[in-house]
Design a protein that fits this description.
By secondary structure, the chain is of the alpha/beta class. Helix content is about 45%, strand content about 15%. Strands 1, 3, 4, 5, 6 and 7 form a six-stranded mixed sheet that branches. Strands 2-8 form a two-stranded antiparallel ribbon. A hairpin with a 7-residue loop joins strand 3 and strand 4. It is globular.
């Protein structure tokens, strides 16, 4: 009996060693992003996501869809032809699916959603507003030094920079299933687009408006007896009949695109939040040893956020905190959004 128990413990140790050796934590604070600012609303989530660098192994269909759609519509605004746009869409899809083992059902769902992305992007080329948009640079990178924490840089990558109706603007592309008036009202104080505007201003390219482009994802599903091709054809017909429903959203009463004014005071407020968030994180990193930094118990959990927009992807780690290491096999290394983030890794010199 003791031999069986000893072997089980050895198996667990090997499993932990295998999973943890593939994930390198970030034990230094060198980069501030708006995503880190959002994550500190629950410091425990920040720990799992930004310190331990855990990312769920399963495919996130929303991230896949949004990322692939982004590339497609960016290609439209960059003036590419439809064959070139479709190549870009397929290439991005393959990139985002790399390393994932998909079930048969997941493969079928991806195939249908890929065709729907093509339907929406192709339809957007014929929208009257699209002719007024010109993207000069996609994935425009902005960065600047954080005053509150010397040595730390703010980094951001906005969807694009260019012109709308002949005037300079930034571009932000979103996909959503629910588009309401309150969705757009929240943009008045949105930290993401305003922090990007601050970055542009610091680079000597001030922008006073953001061309905010929201596309509705269909909530329709394949009916019993309906083939995937018939379903895609149905949605294509619906998009042609109700373009305003899919581009902008009809209950929102907002036109497509939504041109968001980027006010000086709101831009400054976003910058102040970035500075304050960076200062707070620096206090934690500066006052904890590396060993203490890597203990989840030292990061405060905000349990009111466990089930916001569905269950938190790190809920099982918090819920089983005394043996959280057993669950690391369900996670992989988080992808670094910016090159400078690599300087935060534990093994970075």
């Amino acid at each position: 009996m003791n031999n069986v128990y000893t072997q089980r413990r050895a198996n667990v140790r090997n499993l932990l060693s295998e999973s943890m050796n593939t994930i390198i934590p970030s034990t230094k604070f060198k980069v501030m992003t708006v995503h880190k600012l959002w994550d500190i609303s629950c410091l425990r989530k920040f720990f799992w996501h930004r310190v331990m660098n855990f990312s769920p192994k399963g495919i996130n269909f929303n991230f896949w869809y949004g990322g692939v759609f982004h590339v497609g519509f960016q290609a439209v605004l960059l003036g590419k032809t439809w064959p070139a746009i479709k190549v870009a869409i397929r290439k991005e899809s393959k990139k985002r699916l790399k390393g994932h083992s998909l079930t048969v059902d997941e493969q079928q769902e991806i195939a249908v959603q890929f065709d729907l992305i093509c339907v929406f992007v192709k339809a957007s080329m014929d929208h009257p507003a699209t002719a007024k948009m010109e993207m000069i640079e996609a994935e425009k990178f902005v960065n600047y030094s954080i005053k509150a924490v010397p040595g730390v840089k703010y980094c951001g990558s906005m969807d694009g920079d260019g012109f709308y109706d002949g005037e300079p603007c930034t571009f932000e592309i979103k996909t959503a299933t629910q588009i309401t008036a309150s969705y757009f009202k929240a943009l008045d104080v949105d930290q993401q687009v305003h922090s990007y505007a601050l970055g542009m201003r610091k680079q000597g390219k001030p922008r006073d408006k953001c061309c905010y482009l929201v596309f509705r994802k269909t909530q329709k599903r394949i009916k019993k007896g309906q083939t995937p091709d018939d379903f895609v054809a149905e949605i294509k017909k619906d998009v042609a009949a109700r373009p305003n429903f899919y581009f902008g959203g009809d209950e929102s009463k907002v036109s497509f695109p939504y041109v968001l004014p980027l006010g000086k005071h709101t831009i400054n407020d976003a910058g102040n939040n970035i500075e304050a968030g960076a200062w707070l994180l620096n206090q934690i990193y500066s006052n904890l040893s590396e060993r203490s930094l890597l203990l989840p118990q030292n990061w405060v959990a905000n349990t009111r956020q466990c089930f916001n927009y569905g269950r938190c992807p790190y809920f099982q780690l918090c819920h089983n905190l005394k043996r959280w290491e057993l669950y690391t096999r369900f996670y992989k290394q988080r992808e670094m959004l910016y090159t400078k983030e690599e300087t935060e890794l534990q093994n970075a010199k």
